[in-house]
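Standup notes
- DV: blocked on the single-chain target, sequence here:
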Amino acid sequence: MQDEILGKRRDFLGLAAMAAAAGFGSTLPATQAAAAGGPSTNFTRWLDSIPGKHRQVYDMPEVNNGMALAWSWVFLLTGAPAYGVPESDLGVVIVIRHDALPLAFQDEVWAKYKMGEMFKIDDPDTKAPAVRNPFWLKPGALPIPDAGLQKLIDRGVRVAVCNMAITFYSGMAAKKMGLKHEEVMKDWLDAVQPGITVVPSGMVALNGAVSRGCVYVFAG
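- DV (later): unblocked, structure below
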């Protein structure tokens, strides 16, 4: 087990170096500069799009039965009457990273790359490893239809997915299936659901959201 963990760590560090060399992390210094009034980037413009006066960011490194989605829905439901403000005064961010990564993808790559099996995510209807995204239209097995990712995005929730996780896990999938890493990674990037933003890393997204006044909540 320890050898497996060390192996994954070496793989991650190698892929992280590759991602940095390819420029995937190049917005981080600009992010720090923008916080001090420096130049803007795609990433900082995404941060600036977070709405509302009362803001919350959910850190989602694991699926955890879709609780980040349920809690986002609860915040929208209860925040407006609690603060006596319209829902437009509430800002919600979900950062999908690490083992929650497949939630950001369309069904095609779930089936093609057996993501349910790879990430140990079962379909709540079949109880077998999922070959579709069971969190897009509804939050997995949770009985809250309005907490599906699509409906949350339609209500203004900002959702980010970690590019470092895409880089790392697409490399693992490519190695296992005997495919080229760059082709698998392109497949995954092309399959990101509409309304979800690819950010350099989940870590910088959390940092940026907190810097924009979001209260941090661990949801994994």
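- Follow-up: Residues 1-10, 16-36 have pLDDT under 50 and may be disordered.
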